[in-house]
């Protein structure tokens, strides 16, 4: 059966359509989820897309965290059952929800960064990166003003020790992110937050590469290798 | 009706590039003797009735849950 992958649209989401397109290109069926409906519609996984949810008022992701759709998502993600990928603003929502450690703050340069960014995959032990090779360098789009990942040293040490740093910027972190961290996962590997955008690198015509597609095909491989995860598990 | 003011500041160890940019502008404008600037947020919360302990507790919970992100920010509140 074709996997069904939910993509949440918050007011101010920008990249939900691209995320749905990436899901489709990977061979799954995208399911649109609306921020105001407390229902995941039985999807097998969820993508929280990039953009400026609720205008990024207060802090990026701080208000989206309390959207009705998150009521079902947060416990299912925390339990390890529901794979969730948060891209850019979605990563910020996952940090604000405490599903992932740390926080994303203003780029150290104060400039909005928009470029094709070399990124090194550090961990393939997640639902979203199992089709990559550890150490593999990919080129995907980075476009964010608040992508500077921060956490205290003890948290960073623990993330590195437990293999939960999923991706790093190759070379210097353009946004000042601590230890060059571009993406992290939770302890189960089902929840991944990523500052650059794999969904913008899935087609030759519009992306800097097609290197991002394997985030989505990794999910399908993960779902095939593990029993169906009912999204409603709490 | 009473007003409770919540001040939210980045923790001292968190880089504040906005504050640094403002400090740079101060220097260019000739405001001398500025050692550094950190930028924060101020929330004025209007509550019904008196700002008693129960109300303050509620605002405190609000600050911890929503107004501040305890990973990177500290908050303080006072009746204003």
UniProtKB/TrEMBL annotation, chain A:
Pathway: Purine metabolism; IMP biosynthesis via de novo pathway; 5-amino-1-(5-phospho-D-ribosyl)imidazole from N(2)-formyl-N(1)-(5-phospho-D-ribosyl)glycinamide: step 1/2. The active site is at 88 (nucleophile), 197, 199. Its EC number is 6.3.5.3, 3.5.1.2. InterPro entries: Class_I_gatase-like, PRibForGlyAmidine_synth_PurQ. It holds the Pfam family GATase_5. Its main location: cytoplasm. Part of the phosphoribosylformylglycinamidine synthase complex involved in the purines biosynthetic pathway. Catalyzes the ATP-dependent conversion of formylglycinamide ribonucleotide (FGAR) and glutamine to yield formylglycinamidine ribonucleotide (FGAM) and glutamate. The FGAM synthase complex is composed of three subunits. PurQ produces an ammonia molecule by converting glutamine to glutamate. PurL transfers the ammonia molecule to FGAR to form FGAM in an ATP-dependent manner. This is Phosphoribosylformylglycinamidine synthase subunit PurQ. The gene is purQ.
Automatic annotation (TrEMBL), chain B:
Its EC number is 6.3.5.3. It catalyses: N(2)-formyl-N(1)-(5-phospho-beta-D-ribosyl)glycinamide + L-glutamine + ATP + H2O = 2-formamido-N(1)-(5-O-phospho-beta-D-ribosyl)acetamidine + L-glutamate + ADP + phosphate + H(+). Keywords: ATP-binding, Cytoplasm, Ligase, Nucleotide-binding, Purine biosynthesis. Pfam families: PurS (PF02700). GO terms for molecular function: ATP binding; phosphoribosylformylglycinamidine synthase activity. It is found in: Cytoplasm. Its main location: cytoplasm. One of its GO terms (biological process) is 'de novo' IMP biosynthetic process. Pathway: Purine metabolism; IMP biosynthesis via de novo pathway; 5-amino-1-(5-phospho-D-ribosyl)imidazole from N(2)-formyl-N(1)-(5-phospho-D-ribosyl)glycinamide: step 1/2. It comes from the Bacteria. InterPro entries: PurS, PurS-like_sf. One of its GO terms (cellular component) is cytoplasm. Part of the FGAM synthase complex composed of 1 PurL, 1 PurQ and 2 PurS subunits. Part of the phosphoribosylformylglycinamidine synthase complex involved in the purines biosynthetic pathway. Catalyzes the ATP-dependent conversion of formylglycinamide ribonucleotide (FGAR) and glutamine to yield formylglycinamidine ribonucleotide (FGAM) and glutamate. The FGAM synthase complex is composed of three subunits. PurQ produces an ammonia molecule by converting glutamine to glutamate. PurL transfers the ammonia molecule to FGAR to form FGAM in an ATP-dependent manner. Belongs to the PurS family. This is Phosphoribosylformylglycinamidine synthase subunit PurS. It comes from Streptomonospora alba. The lineage of its organism: Bacteria, Bacillati, Actinomycetota, Actinomycetes, Streptosporangiales. The gene is purS.
């Amino acid at each position: 059966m074709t996997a069904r992958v939910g993509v949440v649209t918050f007011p101010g989401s920008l990249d939900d359509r691209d995320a749905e397109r990436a899901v489709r290109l990977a061979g799954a069926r995208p399911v649109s989820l609306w921020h105001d409906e407390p229902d995941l519609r039985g999807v097998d996984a969820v993508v929280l897309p990039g953009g400026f949810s609720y205008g990024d008022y207060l802090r990026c992701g701080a208000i989206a965290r309390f959207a009705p759709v998150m009521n079902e998502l947060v416990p299912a993600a925390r339990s390890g059952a529901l794979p969730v990928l948060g891209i850019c603003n979605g990563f910020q929502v996952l940090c604000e929800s405490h599903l992932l450690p740390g926080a994303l703050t203003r780029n150290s340069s104060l400039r909005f960064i928009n470029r094709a960014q070399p990124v090194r995959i550090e961990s393939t032990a997640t639902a979203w990166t199992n089709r990559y090779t550890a150490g593999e360098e990919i080129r995907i789009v980075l476009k964010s003003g608040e992508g500077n990942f921060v956490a205290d040293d003890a948290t960073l040490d623990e993330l590195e020790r437990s293999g939960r740093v999923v991706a790093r910027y190759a070379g210097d972190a353009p946004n000042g992110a601590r230890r060059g961290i571009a993406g992290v996962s939770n302890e189960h590997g089902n929840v991944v937050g990523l500052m650059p955008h794999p969904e913008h690198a899935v087609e030759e015509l519009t992306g800097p590469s097609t290197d991002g597609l394997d985030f989505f095909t990794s999910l399908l491989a993960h779902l095939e290798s593990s029993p169906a995860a009912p999204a409603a598990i709490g | 009706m009473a007003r409770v003011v919540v001040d939210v500041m980045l923790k001292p160890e968190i880089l504040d590039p906005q504050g640094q940019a403002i400090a740079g502008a101060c220097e260019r404008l000739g405001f001398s003797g500025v050692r550094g600037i950190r930028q924060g947020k101020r929330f004025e919360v209007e509550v019904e009735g008196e700002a008693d302990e129960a109300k303050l507790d509620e605002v405190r919970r609000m600050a911890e849950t929503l107004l501040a992100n305890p990973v990177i920010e500290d908050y303080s509140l006072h009746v204003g």
